[in-house]
Amino acid sequence: MITNFKECITSQEELRNMLGSPSLRGQNKVISTIDEHCREFIGKSPFLVLATSDAAGNCDSSPRGDAPGFVYVLDDQHLIIPDRPGNKRVDSMFNILENPRVGLLFLIPGMGETLRINGQATIIRDEAILEKMAVNGKAPLLGIVVKVEQCFMHCGKAFKRSGLWEPEKWGAKEELPNAAKILADHVNLPGMTEDVVAEALLDGYKNKLY
Questions:
Q1: Are 141 and 86 spatial neighbours (Cβ–Cβ below 8 Å)?
Q2: Is the pLDDT of residue 1 over 70?
C-alpha cells in the first residue's frame, strides 16, 4: 500500500462517508446476462478495453478493436473476443492463465455511455467457432471466451468532461506525442531509430492487421 501521502483513505466506510451511497438506479442496473440491449451495444462497438491481472494482482489493460460487431456473442452468458495479430507479448492471455477474472469496457464512437462487463475468461482454439470471426479469409488463431457475470451501462460524464468525441477539442496533429520516437527511446537498442520504428509501425498497420 502507498503510505507516503497524507490522509489516505483506507476503508470502504471512509469512502461511503465522504461520497454517499449509489442511487437505486445505480444499485439495480447490474444484470448477469447478455440481454438484447447488451447484444445491440456489442454489435455496434468497434472497440473495447480488456482489463486483466495475474495471480499476484499485477494489472494490465489492453485495447481490442475491429469492425463493429467483431466480438462474437455465443449465447446470453458467453462472448468471444478474437485475438488478432499483435506484438506477441500476450500479456492479457498470460494473465488469464493465472487469473481468469476480467473486466471489459465497450465503446461506440460518438456515444458517451459505455458498456461494462465483468466475468471469467478462458482461451480457446476451436476452429469451428473462430472461423465465424474470420476477416479477409483469415480466422484468428485464438479467442478469449468471457463468461459474463455482470453487465451494466456506465454514464457518459467522463466523455463529456474530456471532450473525447469532440474534434474541436482535440490537440493539433503536429502537437501529438510521437509514438515512433517514444518507442525508439524506450526500446533503446542499436539501430532501432525513430525512422526505423516509424517504418515498422506503418508496415504493421498496412500489411499485418489480420
A1: no
A2: no
